[in-house]
Structure formats: structure tokens, C-alpha cells
Amino acid sequence: MIIAYVISYIASYFAASAGHYVLSGIILILMSFALYAMDYLKTRNVINLRGLFTLGFLGGEGVACLKLSYLETDWHIMTWLCFFFAFTAFYLIYELLMLNKARIDYKIKPLGRVMTFGRIPDVQRLFVCILVLTAVSTACFLFEAVVLGYVPLFVRGVPHAYSYFHISGVHYFTVSCVLVPAFSVIWFLKTENRTPGRTAAMIICDFMAFSIPLLCVSRFQFVFAVALAILTFIAVKKNVSVKLVISAVFLGVAAFAVLSAARSHDAEYLNSIFEMKISLPVSISRIYIYIANNYDNFDCLVRQLTEHTFGLRMLFPVWALTGLKFVAPQLVDFPLYVTKEELTTLTMFYDFYYDFGVLGVFLGSALIGATAVFIERFSMERDDPMAAVFYAQFAIYMILAFFTTWFSNPTTWFYLAVTVIIYFICIGEKEAK
Fold first, then answer.
1. pLDDT tens digit string along 116-158?
2. Cα Rg for the chain, rounded, in angstroms?
3. What interhelical angle do 387-399 and 350-379 show, nearest 10?
């Protein structure tokens, strides 16, 4: 199939070069579905990580190739090469490591024993962790609301109210509520004798976890919480129908649309930003731009970057979480190359190129592919419910590979750190069968 991909990619490039943008996009979109179908038939796993990455990144590239906005221009040849290497490196390293999974298992067994992968979670400890996480998140949200003097949902006529609803350091704890529904899924699935009181407490925790993103009018955090819970459920149950996944996608799109309406953006304002070539409902043009423009932002980077930053961009989580960005602002003082100042979302590989160019994109994608294999082997094939939360988080980053620089985002690492802490607190002593 990789040969079919190469042929399709070349065909898409020449179609775009000739100005046949719709044809160029359709070729890549159909190829992404074909490759996903192959992975699904091979694994019978609807959330296979390589399949999700294929739909997210390659499918997203196909959408961008349609060129439905005046903001989009023909890509530089280096942009095409970077996108090609990004997908190829991930796909091939994943295939290579999966073909040698027996050897991989042999090498990671000692690590599995140390980290107690494949154990049944202690649901009593998990219940307490969920309560504590919800309480901390709620307290931090209230603290921010009191100090800042407003709640974004109740502010009208201020489209970017959420953008200013941050107190440095505190906001990481506020948005950590998005992990609560995923952990509660495990609690519900693995607790045999649930008392009415504890069930009610868990429902309240989930209610608070979904309410905080709504009050913040954070589309991403709300969709992330919903998607993480659904993907955790699928990862634990394993044999889940494609219909559930499709339903989850529609639910996410609907939630995105509702929260977008709550952010006080009117249609005229959005259309002036999107600059669509054809008249589309603003809800559709918004989704299109949120996918397509990220690739054009990457093209802006390729065309305008004068020097690479050699790791400083990728180390942004270190500068942010340690507070060094306030002590030495020059560590994070780099321009953002985008088509329009209001459209600042990027692809997963933006910072890889910013730091090390096309080599960074290739090696970074290969590393992510290898990590995907590692996570898949531990969480899906070793029947570890708690590790399913790791899998679900990584799955979201794969399907939204078109969206932003996940692995140089401090929130990503904060979520993973909280997950690790709860994992080790809650892991039980009895091995799963």
C-alpha cells in the first residue's frame, strides 16, 4: 500500500501544480480512507493509531489541497516534501516495528514488570483520585473567575474572552478536569458493586468536568473531554462497532458548533477572516479552515523561516512548566509564521521543521510512529484498563495531527504527567487475566 500512496501523492502534486485543486485533494482524501481501511481490516481495531494518523494527517492534507479559501496558495516544493516525509516516516517505522513485535515484546517485558502494565486498577483509589482531581480543577476555576472577575460564558460581545481567561500555572490545573470522564469510564467498567452514593458522586464529577470547559467556552477542551472518554471506552472494550466511532465524530462536531456559537463570533466577522472562494454555511467553512489552514501555515513557515532554532521550540514545555519563559523571554521569543494573525493553529510537525528543518520532520515523525507502536503494544494487547487512558490521549493527538504542535505543547505533557501519577496510585496488585 505504501507504493500506492507514493503514486497517489505524486499524482496529487502534479494535479495541484496544474491548478486542478479539487482533484488533488480528492486523491489524497480517498487514499487516506483506503489506508485506514487496510489497517482496520488487519487489526479489527477502529482506533488503530496508524489508521487514525492516516485519516487525521493525510486526510487533512487532502482537505487543504482543495484550496477553497483565498488565503491558500500553491505550496512550496519543500512543503510537499515535508508532508510526504512526515507521513512516510510514521507509516514505515510503524510497519517495521509491528513486523518485529515478538522481538519488541522480549525487550520490553522487564519494563512491563517494573511499571506493572497489565494489572487490574484499584477502583477504591481511583474513586478518590477522581474526586481529588475534580475538586482541584473546580477550585482553580473558581480562583481564576474571582481573580479575573468574569466567567467567559457570561461575557457577551467579547469573542476572545477565553483567550484572556488564564492565570499562569493555575490554568493547567483548571483544564485537567478533561481527564475525569476518561477515568470515570474505567471506574464504571471495572467496579462490580457500585453503591448509589458513589455512582451519584461520579456523575457529579463528570458533570463538573464537562461544565468547566463550557463555562470557559473552550471548544477544544470540551471536545477533548468527550473524545477522551469515548476513546478510553473503546480501548477498554476493544470490540466496538464503527457506528459508535462515527456517532462520536458527529457528537464532537455538534459540540464544536454549539460552543462556537457561544463565543460571540458573528457570521460576518468569521467570513471576513476565512475568505472563502464559495459561499458555504459558516459552520462548514469554520471546520474547513480549522483543518486546511494549518497546512498553509506550515507553508508560510517553510517560505519565511530564516534560521532554525535547534530544539528551543520543541523545549517550550520545559520553559513554560518551569517558569523559565518569564526569567529568560528570549527562549520563547520567536515569530509565528501564519497566513493570518487570527488563524494560529498549526500541524503537529510545525515545530519539528522550525527546529531542524526537513530532517526534524522525518525523525520526529519516526519517533512518534515508534511511540505509537509502544503504546499500542502495552495498552491494547496487554489488557491494561489504566493504560487505555494513555492510548486514548495519543489517539486524539493522531486524529488531530493536522491541528497543532501537540508534543511541544505544555498542556499535553501536563495531562500525561497527571495520568502517570494517577496510574501509579491506582494500579492494583492482582494481574489481569
1. 445 567 889 999 999 999 999 999 999 999 999 988 888 766 5
2. 22
3. 140
